[in-house]
Design brief:
Elements lengths: L7 E4 L8 H9 L5 E6 L2 E5 L3 E4 L4 E7 L10 H7 L5 E3 L9 H9 L3 E4 L6 H14 L6 E5 L5 H13 L4 E5 L6 H8 L2 E3 L5 E3 L2 E6 L2 H8 L4 H9 L5 H6 L8 E5 L4 E2 L5 H19 L6 E5 L5 H9 L5 E3 L1 H4 L8 H8 L6 E5 L9 E5 L5 H14 L8 H11 L4 H15 L1 H7 L3 H22 L15 H9 L12 H23 L29
Parallel strand pairs: 6-7, 6-16, 7-8, 8-9, 9-12, 12-13, 13-15, 15-16
Antiparallel strand pairs: 1-4, 1-5, 2-3, 2-5, 10-11, 14-18, 17-18
Helix pairs in contact: 5-6, 6-8, 7-10, 11-20, 14-18, 16-17, 16-18, 17-18
């Protein structure tokens, strides 16, 4: 409402409050319009009344329309995934994004991705059975992670998803497309009764590079499609329909996040991928354009509001959910996450891409993992195998890092991969370097496992995936009920981040109208909720 050229006056029964607390309450009443009027006591705010041409009412400075969180982002995202708000809890591997977390958010109308990466098929299958029993018809996603050294696991995961009818997959850590992720997408293609192409298998691709984003925005590559047809994994009809749809429905732009990340700033990365999406859309003219969301660094309402202001269709949170009650992280991990600051993160070698030198972002406060993991990679680069390690280095590894002989670790690797992926052992049989990599990866893998199980004896080696959003979140909730890890429930966090984002979006609208809001009234604060989104039913808008 532009009132600068047409003076209006405010009328209503609820007198505008000039007290900071009253101004805050008016701004936070998001389901009603907010009016800023001039009273004899000064500038006041109210969420009641109406504006009309000049008369006996109070002079009106500015007004904002109702702004419930549902109006942020993309209505198409909510409709496509059957959720109430354009918000997603991203996957955290090893079951940290647990079945409890997924169920809790689904029941409140939010989308969450189960952290299937690194779990054995039988563990994933138990979670899928639970979803079918406890949240039938409600939204959820399952993570499909790309691991160049473990092709079998990616293939088996897709087969499991197809067998159980999983309708939404979050694909992450992809540097290039694989036949497996393409198969998942194509296996859900069909024409409806009106001849329109329908993709029953929805794909959300989490990326941090424009070249990767473009691969998911375009139709599936013909060579991969052809190979799948030849193997009988997709039908000829599905292959023909593949040319009419993008590989992914949604692209999550991953900025400075925990875990796998390029640590690119969201304000630099998101606009580039939005422009790329627009270019691809002009070329292919999809009936439904690819939606672009934002993740990484989103730990406060202000950050979420900024992502929506930049054009994000939806937002994705990660690190902040790890400290919540429902996450699969141990109580000890949740405690140290709740104490993390913005600068308490560091990059360290990733277990799944160790040989390639790929790193991920982890918590450095309270753990020696980053330093020890980097040392392992230095030794891997400098030597051809375990046998060539200097005696002093080998002794330090066995006494301080592994706490057992390297040969014992290798035997444990043999037992593990014999069950999980025997091809790894075949590749290591004639390669001392490869054998060394598997032994070093044992520590990287176990360190994340210790953090999940809460092994107190290995607390100094916890690998906790974490980005700076965790520190920002902790700073924001200081003084509120969410400061205590035991009070952090994922639905509460989602609710407050979204309502807070709408609150700060409303503030920005008033600022553009020249209204100055007192600082004490301009900071959204979380208060306990009985039922975060009980005001509306689950489902699309």
């Amino acid at each position: 409402m532009d009132i600068r050229d047409t003076p209006l006056r405010w009328y209503g029964d609820r007198y505008p409050s000039t007290d900071p607390g009253g101004i805050y309450d008016a701004l936070a009443d998001l389901e009603r319009p907010c009016f800023i009027a001039v009273t004899p006591q000064g500038i006041g705010a109210t969420s009641g009344g109406f504006a009309a041409p000049e008369g006996d009412g109070l002079p009106l400075l500015a007004a904002t329309q109702p702004l419930p969180p549902e109006r942020l982002g993309s209505a198409a995202f909510c409709a496509a995934h059957g959720v109430r708000r354009p918000y997603m809890a991203g996957a955290m591997a090893g079951g940290i994004a647990s079945a409890d977390l997924v169920v809790a958010l689904a029941r409140e109308g939010f989308l969450a991705s189960f952290g299937a990466a690194g779990l054995l098929p039988e563990t994933i299958e138990r979670a899928l059975a639970r979803f079918a029993a406890e949240i039938p018809g409600l939204p959820y996603a399952v993570n499909l992670i790309h691991s160049p050294s473990e092709d079998r696991l990616e293939r088996e995961a897709v087969e499991l998803f197809l067998r159980h009818g999983v309708r939404c997959v979050e694909a992450s850590a992809y540097m290039d497309l694989t036949a497996h992720v393409v198969r998942y997408r194509l296996a859900g293609l069909r024409r409806d009764a009106h001849g329109r192409v329908v993709a029953d298998n929805r794909l959300i691709a989490k990326v941090s590079r424009t070249e990767t984003a473009e691969r998911f925005m375009r139709p599936a590559p013909a060579p991969l499609v052809g190979a799948l047809v030849e193997q009988g994994l997709v039908t000829a009809e599905q292959a023909a329909l593949a040319h009419h749809v993008p590989l992914a429905d949604d692209i999550t732009v991953e900025a400075d996040s925990g875990g796998h990340t390029d640590r690119r700033p969201l304000p630099a990365l998101l606009p580039s991928i939005l422009r790329l999406r627009d270019g691809v859309q002009r070329e292919f003219r999809y009936p439904v354009p690819v939606r672009v969301g934002a993740g990484g660094g989103l730990g406060t309402p202000v950050a979420v509001a900024a992502a929506f202001a930049m054009g994000a269709a939806y937002v994705v949170t990660g690190s902040v959910n790890q400290s919540c009650v429902e996450s699969g992280a141990s109580a000890r991990s949740k405690e140290i996450l709740a104490e993390a600051g913005i600068a308490d993160c560091e990059m360290a070698p990733a277990a799944d891409m160790f040989e390639m030198g790929v790193e991920l972002q982890v918590l450095k406060k309270g753990t020696l993992f980053p330093m020890r993991a980097k040392r392992l990679y230095e030794l891997y680069q400098a030597h051809d195998g375990l046998e060539s390690l200097p005696a002093a280095d080998r002794a330090r590894l066995e006494q301080q890092v592994f706490r057992r002989s390297l040969e014992d670790v290798w035997q444990e690797c043999v037992t593990y991969f014999s069950r999980r992926d025997p091809e790894q052992l075949a590749r290591a049989a004639g390669s001392p370097k490869r054998r060394m990599a598997l032994v070093f990866r044992w520590y990287l893998g176990m360190s994340s496992r210790w953090a999940v199980t809460g092994d107190e004896d290995r607390a100094a080696d916890y690998q906790v995936w974490c980005g700076p959003a965790m520190g920002s979140f902790n700073d924001w909730v200081t003084g509120s009920y969410l400061k205590t890890p035991g009070n952090r429930r994922v639905a509460d966090v989602a609710h407050h981040l979204m309502r807070g984002a709408a609150f700060h979006t409303r503030l920005a609208q008033l600022r553009t109208a020249g209204v100055h809001i007192p600082p004490t009234a301009a900071d959204y604060r979380p208060v306990p909720l009985e039922s975060p989104v009980a005001d509306s039913p689950v489902g699309p808008r």
